[in-house]
Amino acid sequence: MKPGLARVLRLLGVIGAIFLVGILASRSPQSGLTPPVRVLAEESPPTSVILQPDQPAELSSADGRVLINFSAGSADEPLEVTLQTLSQPMAASGQGKRPPLRSFVLRAVDGGGLPVEGLNQPFLVTLDYDDLGLSSSEESQLSLFWWDESAQAWQEAAQTCQPRQDAQLNPELREYLVGVCKFGEFAFFVKTASPNFSFLPLITKLLANQTLQGTVTDFWGNPIPGVEVRANNLAVTYTDEEGRYRIGGLPGEAAIVELAKPGYIFPASGSTLDLVESREYHFSALQQPGCYELIDNGSFERNRGWHILGSTAPASYSTLLSRSGSRSMRSGILKGGQNRYSFSLFSQEFDIPLNTTKVILNLWIRQSTTEDTTTPQSEPAAEIETVTYSPSAVEFPVGGKDINYAGLFDPNNTLMTTNYLFWTRQKSNQWQNKAYQLINFDGRRVRLKIGTYNDGTGGVTSMFTDDVSLEVCVNPPPVSNLIVNGGFENDRGWARLNADRPALQPQYTTERKRSGNRSMFAGVKTQGSNLKGYSPFEQVVTIPAGSTNPVLEFWMWTQSNDSNLTNAAEGMPAQGTLSLQAEPDNDVQYVAVLDTDHRVLRYLVWRRSNAQRWERFTVCNSPACTVNVNLLDSLIGKTFILRFGVYNDGDGRVSSMYIDEVALTVNTLVVPTPTPTNTPTPTNTPTPTNTPTPTNTPTPTVTATPTCGPNLLANSGFENNSGWDIRDSPVRPFYTTAWKYRGARSMFAGVSARGSTASGYSVFQQVVTVPANAVNSRLEFWMYPISYEDNLTGQAEPLGELDPASVPGNDVQYVVILDTNQNQLGNYLLWQRSNNRVWEKKSLLLRDFVPQSDFLGKTIIVRFGVANDGDGDVTAMYVDEAYLWACP
User: What is the DSSP string of 584-642?
Assistant: First the structure.
């Protein structure tokens, strides 16, 4: 044999040996390196946009961390481009790189559904990153990479274009920008050689397009995640967990916006929005009562709905076995000859709505294993197991044992329950049913993961899954206040207009407020300023069909340096003409009702005032109202816009106003009467998402606030830690921001976690002295009662002596008057076990429960409390806006 040939054969032998060792190593157990199940790569919901040949477009990921800008002329035909982020890339990192800071998949298909490889022009990719562990040298080496399928290797994304595109890195904003020309899988790595960073001229051109953003909430201000928002039937995105959405690349001055999500009605869907006046719009939705299915493609008959994650043995749709129909989902490894270390995982994300009365997750599995040992079922088959929301940091080590499993995770991949739903390995010839009642998951985004782990040694394990369903039934409470964020305590609900004149845009402010922490300021504050134009803000409002007696209420604080002040300003435009382009002759403060095309239906206020005090306005069809019109009655069942604004003519004599406590109530039985300025008037605030709403939600009767006073209770709104004596009882009350009627806080008493065996009294109280002539003293407060007891009653059975140190015989919510020796005076003002779960106003005359001789001129204790007997069916209540009016 020739020496040269021998050398070649020896070299081939060495390469073959290395290759064989690699194979064996890949099939051997990876002791100490096996990750727990919860750190697997997981996909976020996809977002998409229709890219037209002659129009620019913008596409943002569902988590808002990846932004793609396309310029006009990038495509020769309409393309549907889809963006989906990953927690780690599906392709192997390789090349000695550390795990990526960001990874995503960008795909495009033409009108026939065929994949498209790339575009004629570069598209701009903007990434933000937050890895605080990066050193300055590592940060300077960040680069976006693209997975080259043909070469099976990563290459810098900038090289997908010819000529190569430069990148821009902004360490202060932690932002990276680069031009890219091909679609595929991308990962943001630290590279070994410093990339070439420079300014991209493309950026200015692309970012000049119109952008629409805002929030979607229910009528209580709770964000609604997962709402599909579509603009001009081209760009599509979904709201995040905070209800926020953002759509860019919109051409023209207007956009037709459509919103959709099962179980919700969006009255403003289909509205045409003026992008010149504002590029920020907020929408509210009405929840539909009834039952519906949340799982998409639970029968696995189509290739949609489920995210199949990357693995050496990925899950797949299968016709081998099915419980119904023709297909199921297979996870794991069927044949022993294919045994290897692998995760086989599929998942689906969904949003459980608020106000649920039933949330049943149901699925069927058929397991198989050739392992020597099996694990039992984690719960009895065919029985509904109650699963409580209880975030857990538990990680199941899986090295050495195959396993089939399912779990509920939040968007951060944190397990939402104490344990997995099931964690089992069995040999079975039958389909097994798994059913779960999900308690306290209201308003949460949930990711269901189902899969199989194989450790690569011994036998193999697999599982078929079929007929997955999640039936949800909701019974929303009646809507009483239709204004979202009427107290301006957060940034939801209101659109602040005049986007092209930032100095005139209204501002949330803490400088002056009627109640709570904030109000809205509009107009010009600095005397002598020559700023000219409108300072308006508005909200899209819908009065549901079937509502009665709508009443609009708001508080206004006005100031003006103009000399010709008037409560009926001159120059009121004709109806249908008010816009940001119209120019009145003088300053004016106004309130208007517009249709969805922004044509004015009626001006409710049109004046130039320097009152410099809070004034209350009520609008309804009654002589008792400040503005007596039948306008609101004519808008029942319709959507309209409520706009507040100030116009300044630029002559240096400036005008402005503050607005607070805006409310539009329906089904009101009593027309509100003027309230003194020192008496807070409640407005609805967002309802928290962590407590389920019951099936029975009666509408509270609104009663007029008494005109007498003063209020004897300190810290009536529970906004600070003063005034109230929180008793050192076994179940101690606490101030909370989780749920409140108004302002920032309320007081919670009782036990919150269903199933808890905590027992005892939860008591808070305050000592007051009642004037001797206050014969009509009245205790008023708002409460939100909760109870899981099955024997609910408006008049609970006796408990015996209320001793905070004892264990009660039954649960009860109560209010009682005591003397300074803690002895009960008269009867209980409140004694109930209620699960109404709406904010109810209680107005109680002391003399109806306590002899006048026991409280007139006396020092007494006003006690609020909840008793729990420890049987697991817990009882609690929130209390807010508590006042004791000393009425003569």
Answer: -SS-EEEEEEE-TTS-EEEEEEEEB----SEEEEEEESSTTSSEE-SHHHHTBT-EEEE
Residues 406 and 348 sit within 8 Å (Cβ to Cβ)? no
Which one has a higher pLDDT value, 709 or 456?
456
Q: Which band of pLDDT confidence, cut at 50, 70 and 90, is reported for residue 668? A: very low
Q: Give the whole-angstrom CA distance, residue 423 versus residue 770.
A: 62
Both tokens of 583, joined, read 């120019």
Q: Worst-scoring range by mean pLDDT, 474-488, 590-604, 824-838?
A: 474-488
What pLDDT band is residue 133 in, cutting at 50, 70 and 90?
low
Question: What pLDDT is attached to residue 89?
Answer: 56
| Cα–Cα dist 552/618, whole Å | 6
| Residue 452 exposed, middle or buried by CB count within 10 Å (0-12, 13-18, 19+) | buried
Closest C-alpha among 348, 346, 349 to residue 309: 346
Q: How many CB atoms lie within 10 A of CB 203?
A: 15
The residue among 312, 245, 327, 324 whose CA lies nearest residue 280 is 245
**Bridge partners, residue 614, by sequence:** 557
Q: End-to-end CA distance of the chain, in Å? A: 121
- With contact defined as beta carbons under 8 Å apart, do 446 and 408 qualify? yes
Listed as own residue / partner, the contacts of 233-236 with beta carbons closer than 8 Å and 24 or more positions apart are: 233/50, 233/258, 234/49, 234/50, 234/52, 234/55, 234/57, 235/49, 235/50, 235/57, 235/58, 235/59, 236/47, 236/48, 236/49
Spell 709-728 as b/e; 16+ CB within 10 A means b.
eebbbebbbbbeeeebebbe
DSSP class of 502: G
From the list 232, 259, 268, the residue with the least C-alpha distance to 248 is 232
> Considering just the CA atoms, what is the radius of gyration of the chain in Å?
32
At 466, list the tokens: 């079929």
Count of Cβ atoms closer than 10 Å to residue 16 Cβ? 10
- How far apart are the C-alpha atoms of 888 and 31, rounded to whole Å? 80
Q: What are phi and psi of 692, to 5 degrees?
A: -70, 150
97 contact partners, CB below 8 Å, separation of at least 6: 154, 189, 190, 191
Q: Is the pTM above the cut of 0.70?
A: no
Angle at 590 between CA 587 and CA 593, to 5 degrees: 145
> Is the preceding peptide bond at 46 cis, omega within 30 degrees of 0?
no
Which tens digit of pLDDT belongs to each residue from 67-124? Answer: 898 887 888 888 989 888 876 554 444 444 566 778 888 988 888 778 888 887 889 8
Are β-strands 79-86 and 254-260 bridged in parallel, bridged antiparallel, or unpaired?
unpaired
Of 810, 811, 815, the C-alpha closest to 831 is 815
CA dist., res. 683 & res. 764, Å (int): 24
Q: Which two tokens stand for residue 610?
A: 């320097």
Give pLDDT, residue 479: 67
Which region among 286-290, 324-328, 407-411 has the lowest average model confidence (pLDDT)? Answer: 286-290
Q: Cα separation of 452 and 332, whole Å?
A: 5
User: What does the longest C-alpha to C-alpha distance in the chain come to?
Assistant: 123
Give CA–CA dist 118/116, Å, rounded.
6
Q: Which residues contact 6 (CB under 8 A, 6 or more apart)?
A: none
Instruction: Indicate the residue type of 409.
Output: F
Q: Which among 484, 457, 461 has a CA at the least distance from the CA of 399?
A: 457
- Say which range, 415-424, 800-809, 879-888, has the weakest mean pLDDT: 800-809
Q: Would you put residue 745 in left (φ > 0), alpha (ψ -120 to 50) or beta?
A: beta
Which among 365, 356, 350, 459 is positioned nearest to 421, based on CA atoms?
A: 365
Measured CA angle at 859 (ends 856, 864), to 5 deg? 100
- Out of 3-12, 292-301, 806-815, the most confident range is 292-301
